[in-house]
Amino acid sequence: MPRDPRFDILFDPVRIGPVTARNRFFQVPHCSGMGHLLPRSDAAMRAMKAEGGWAVVCTEQCSFHPHAEAAPYPETKLWDRDDVVRMRHWTDAVHEHGALAGVELVSNASALPNYYSREIPLGPSHTPATYSHDPVQARAMDLDDIHEFRRWHRDAVLRSRDAGFDLVYLYCGHDIAMPMDFLTRRRNRRTDEYGGSLENRVRLLRELLEDTVGAVGGQMAVALRFATDELLGEDGVTWEDEGCKAIEMLADLPDLWDVNVSDWAHDSATSRFSSEGFQEPYVSFVKGMVKKPVVCVGRYTSPETMLSLITRGVSDFVGCARPSIADPFIPNKIDEGRLDDIRECIGCNICVTGQHMKTPMRCTQNPTVGEEWRRGWHPERIEPKGSEASVLVVGAGPAGLECALALGQRGYKVGLAEARRELGGRVTDESAMPGFSEWARVRDYRAYQIDKLHETVEVFRESEMTAETILDAGYRHVAVATGSRWRGDGIGRANTMGPIPGSDGAHVFTPNDIFGGASPASPVVVFDDDHYYMGGALAEQFRDAGLEVVLVTPAPVVSSWSEEALEQEIVQSRLVAMGVGIATGHNLTRIDADAVEIEGVYGEGARTVACASVVMVTSRLPNDGLYHGLKASPDRLAEAGVLSVRRIGDALGPGLIAAAVWSGHRYARELDGPPPGDVPFKRELVFV
Predict the structure, then answer these.
(1) Across residues 225-229, what is the average pLDDT?
(2) Order of strands, edge to edge, in the sheet holding 606-610?
(3) Cα dihedral 407, 461, 467, 644 in deg (nearest 10)
(4) Which one-letter DSSP state was computed for residue 519?
(5) Which residues contact 464 (CB under 8 A, 6 or more apart)?
(6) Hey, which residues does 613 pair with through a beta bridge?
(7) Of these residues, 30, 36, 174, 665, which one is catalytic?
(8) Which residues are paired to 595 by β-bridges?
(9) For 617, which of 226, 426, 457, 535 could close a Cys bridge (C-beta 3.0–4.6 Å)?
(10) Which residue among 73, 169, 171, 445 is the active-site one?
(11) In contact, 209 and 224? CB cutoff 8 Å
């Protein structure tokens, strides 16, 4: 299908200093959880985006000297000639598909403690480490330190050139970079020529830009990543004042302006708390101030919004991080007129959690991310079927939908049986909670793609399968994707020995009960021993409905694991603002008819909280009765011609939606293939 002419402007080449981007699709720097520890994996992931049509593909933040490094985070390094050799592999992989390669050189300054290099962190002033709670302080740089810092940076720029990069970034944003530390008054308390006035606080950034431009000698483009607003009001940089004035001072120095907001939690806000293009109020003014190309982000997922971004003059490029992870082939799909095939980011920030946990990132929408090198998975290509065997997938939740889709793409004859009328399973339930509507894309994308495979995939709605009906159905393989259910007895992390007394009461509910239409009476206690989004989201939902709500959690904060997705502070602040009562650091120990007993986990003793209903958000049990019923009769399976029965997704082990999607995809990839072995993927090993 030819490209819609309306989108032609997105494919115009754009000059960036001495280099030219082939179109307007720009993957801005973003972390991957792979970095220098898994360089082949990171390179393969970035190369996939180049193959998918992105004109510029950038690294994550790249440490350029031992004075500032991110251990235990595995960020990329460019410290010496050995790193040049390693990163040449990265640039070659990106260049192979016609994209420009960009590197974001960064000094994390006073943000991180340098546990690997053991160097004392540096900063404009004496400041505790700002990105963590480590008992480490940065020391104030003197003028000799600043001179050395500029030399370190210039040398790294030259190494970037030797490594084959086309574009080199200076990083002044996210509250974790040296130039930003000097710029913001919150970090810079100096009284010399690098402190005080805005002109003085911008001085180091100006010098680094001038040094970089001089070092590249017109052979590389120079980009500046700049936070126009810290969203702290008068306590920080604001776009109306110092952000705007700093841009005016530096307008002509870089070849490209990459503008966003600070810090990372604001820049990568989730869909639960932000909408597409949410950063525009803070960055749209920049293009009118500079004569150089501008790129900005805002989790742009819709081709129409991308087009509007350019035609309205907000930006010269469509800047993306998370959308390019969810679908590395967005540019090619727009170019080929396949807009309905775009796998849109849902803004859940599961990709971010990989970085925080120092492991290869995952994606709820794209199960192949991070698997490009180690498993050889491609997001748009899959091996044809290995036999003529048919497959029955039982359950059309995230695992079942992905499994049926991938099997159908391989050419298998597939039956997808779902007990309910509506597809999606837990995705359908959870996307109805406040702020979660975009999560329905997990269902909608797969349902639409499956519909196009109607010749190979047949969907059976309102078809609750039993062992008998499966044996009579005539399929050779059975994938059980029947999901999981929330426990109502309170057993979880804090309560492992047995049910909480009183948990069998009629006024005790689970999230499944709520999704099924149950209405708890006010006041309601939400007991959250899960620690991700469910407890906080239900508390918000109940409060929106006018109920009096108290959220009780054994954790020290509300929705503690959501910190990995950059949401925790927003979640707790919103609940406080809504008037939800919060009892952190407390376990639920007994449920009575009109109250619960809670006990402080730090020895504060027990107290009662009046309530009319209780909602348990503790742990889940797999719905695996059907699986065990089938496996209990191996002779009958053989008689029916069933070659295999396997569980996938939450029916195998309750977890994230991303894990369920990945599980379904893996089943489809490995069906009729050779046994994966005890170590089912390639490892990146270092030999001396």
Answers:
(1) 96
(2) 586-591, 595-600, 606-610
(3) 0
(4) -
(5) 419
(6) 524
(7) 174
(8) 610
(9) 535
(10) 171
(11) yes
Give the type of residue at 630: L
Cis, bond preceding 520 (omega within 30 deg of 0): no
Identify whether the C-beta of residue 549 lies closer than 8 Å to the C-beta of residue 543: yes
> If residue 145 lies in a helix (H) or strand (E), which one and from where to where?
helix 143-162
How far is the first Cα of the chain from the last one, in angstroms, to the nearest whole number?
52
The torsion angles phi and psi of 413, rounded to 5 degrees, stand at: -80, 120
Q: Smallest Cα–Cα separation from 457: which of 499, 405, 525?
A: 405
Q: Considering Cα of 235, then 237, then 239, then 241, what sign does the dihedral take?
A: positive
Tokens of 628: 């065990």
DSSP state of 562: G
Mean pLDDT of 344-367: 95
Could you read off the pLDDT of 623-666 as tens digits, one per residue? Answer: 999 999 999 999 999 999 999 999 999 999 999 999 999 999 99
Q: What is the pTM of this model?
A: 0.96
From 31, 58, 403, 611, active-site residue:
31
State residue 215 phi and psi, 5-degree precision. -70, -40
Asked about 171 being catalytic, the answer comes back as: yes
What is the reported pLDDT for 294? 98
* Range list of β-strands (E), 272-398: 294-296, 317-320, 391-394
Q: In 3D, which of 484, 574, 582 has the Cα closest to residue 526?
A: 582
pLDDT band at 513 (very low <50, low <70, confident <90, very high): very high
Assess contact for 28 and 356: CB atoms under 8 A.
no
What residues contact 506, with CB distance under 8 A and at least 6 apart?
A: none
Q: How far is Cα 545 from Cα 394, in angstroms, rounded to an integer?
A: 35
DSSP 339-368: GGG--------HHHHHHHTTS----SS-TT
Report H helices in 370-436.
398-410, 426-430
From 181, 258, 267, 624, the catalytic residue = 267
Most distant pair of Cα atoms in the chain: their distance? 86
- Rounded distance between C-alpha atoms, residue 590 and residue 555, angstroms: 18
- What Cα–Cα distance (Å) separates residue 165 from each residue in 24, 105, 156, 455, 532? 19, 12, 12, 47, 39
Helices 568-578 and 533-544 cross at an angle (nearest 10°) of 20
DSSP of 193-243: TTSSSHHHHHHHHHHHHHHHHHHHTTSSEEEEEEEEE-S-GGGS--IIIII
User: Left if phi > 0, otherwise alpha if psi is -120 to 50, otherwise beta: which for 174?
Assistant: left
* 8 A C-beta contact, residue 52 and residue 331: yes
Reply yes or no on whether 31 is catalytic: yes
Q: Which two tokens mark 571?
A: 């979640």
> Cis ω on the peptide bond leading into residue 80 (within 30° of 0)?
no
Tokens 């369920």 sit on residue: 660
> What is the bridge-based pairing of β-strands 620-622 and 613-617?
unpaired
Angstrom distances, CA of residue 592 to CA of 115, 131, 524, 546: 50, 43, 13, 23
Nearest to 324 by CA among 334, 311, 312, 314: 334
Residue 131: what pLDDT?
78
**Burial degree of 582 (CB within 10 A; 0-12, 13-18, 19+):** middle
Among 319, 250, 258, 279, which Cα is nearest to 26's? 319
